[in-house]
Amino acid sequence: MKTTKKMMLFVATLFVATFALSSCLSDDNETKKPTVEEQAGYQRTMAGTYGSTLRFFYPSFNNVVKYDSLKHYSWDVTADSTITMRNFPVCKLDSAIIISKDNHSDSAVEFAALRTAIHESNATAKLTAKYFVPNDKYFVEYGYSFPVFPMTIKQSFFYNGKSHDVYFMFDVSGTYGGKFLSSNFTDRVFEYNMVLSGICVDKYSAEGLIPTQYFRQVLITSTTK
Q: Which pTM does this prediction carry?
């Protein structure tokens, strides 16, 4: 799991949209937090509909692999600190489940069936996330950077003879986020990254969490290129 997280952080640095957000979140005497009115102003400035390409990556040894992408995809940003993807392709998260070829245990068979169900479902879901500008360390030339806090997706899949509720959980540590840039009123960029950090089956708790030997994190990037 430690190696997986390291790989995901490595991938994130390849994109300008990801910053060292966790360190900026720390409170110190050198940062200035925005007032409620200032925060509302930042979000009004960033509000709009953006889009281009959604990409999916997983770690592989000392490298990373882009295993899927979706072009002409859009996301809505509103002034109430919400980002919304209305038809997020949950079916593309199947690669988060990994089964070794020599593993024929009951758990391996079960999780393999879930992976197949996710892949073949063509399932989509509404994915919302919260964003905000924590302090003046997040100011960049022509815009702002920000952490992103995605909400868990709940989806039902039928496999092994019955329906199962499956919960897709994302990293909400503040490590991942994005940027907004605008040199004028027409040239506007809003990009961000997310990481799928866990999957629960039937129970939204530690008891239902897929063990780390069957799970790898997935990095999702939302970019205008």
A: 0.86
Residues 174 and 18: their CA atoms lie apart, in Å, by: 11
Q: For the chain, how are helix, strand and coil distributed in percent, rounded to 5?
A: 25, 45, 30
Distance CA 24, CA 194 (A): 18
- How close are the terminal C-alpha atoms of the chain, in Å? 30
| pLDDT tens by residue, the chain, 225 residues | 444 444 444 444 444 334 344 445 555 567 899 999 999 999 999 999 999 999 999 988 888 899 999 999 999 999 999 999 999 999 999 999 999 999 999 999 999 999 999 999 999 999 999 999 999 999 999 999 999 999 999 999 999 999 999 999 999 999 999 999 998 767 899 999 999 999 999 999 999 999 999 999 999 999 987
Residues 216, 58: contact at Cβ < 8 Å?
yes
d(CA 20, CA 12): 10
